[in-house]
Known about the structure:
The protein is of the alpha+beta class. Helices cover 33% and strands 34% of the residues.
Amino acid sequence: MKKWIVWLLGLAILTFLSIYIFIPSKIVISKVIAAVVPTSAEFRYVSQQDKWEKWWRDAHGKSHSPGEPFTYNGTTFRLSQTGYNVAGIDIEQDGIILHSELDLVSISKDSTWTRWNCQILAGNHPIARLRQYQRAVEISKNMKAVLDNLKLFVSNPKNVYEIAIFRTSFRDTSMLSTRFTSTSYPTTEETYQHFDALRKSIQKQKAQITGYPMMSVSMLKTGSFETQVAVPTNRTLQNEGAIFYRKMVPGNFLCAVVKGGRYSIDESMRQLEFFLKDNGKIQMARPFEQLITDRISEPDTAKWITRIYLPVAE
């Protein structure tokens, strides 16, 4: 009987010793992923908690409900602070809040290494240390799952920029063009009046229209708007008053096809500019829009199709 007691006591001592030997006083959790995405692009979706809505999934694969905490399998995550490619994230489980740090490191111009670190104090009591270890294991699994969801999202450029962006050239480089100013953003009717003037000049000079009309709008320092419109043609034409011939230099463009009205077009243009900066491209000239849909005959802006072009150096 005494042997059993000694054996059990020895086993208990060995168990307690193992807890202290194999579970350190400070448990470090570190998770790493690598994704094919520019660092600045990924950081936009990490450093702004409202953008978490786009990539967050819970343990059942469901999207996040606006207004609810960002929770994965019982662990809640909150953005606490941001720095240069670094985000502080508070992790809460069972009322205990832990501070963690997620930092992004650029591997190449289009790849990012994401590292997420968290520390848990295990305590001195063996039972408490064992419980903290179990907590660390669960939090570690949840952190890994959250990172996997982030990686899945940012690895798709269409998710990051909300539009499909592609590189292309432009064939309709011969055109008639004109400019006009307005105190407010040009209306559809005003824009098409100038398109009609260009078409009439092309017809008058017995040339052919070879593509869709184009426009580019910029705000002046005075607060008014300057709009340049153009219609492509098949040959060199003569200037006519405020209408002038223009030969565009063939080049490289970032391009996106947009369905929708002014808000959709402006937002897509903003995403093109993000793509430009994220990928270290140099803008060569003002962007412009190619109006695929005749906006006079189709007043429903939800049905408008527009191609937007941003000239870049390769």
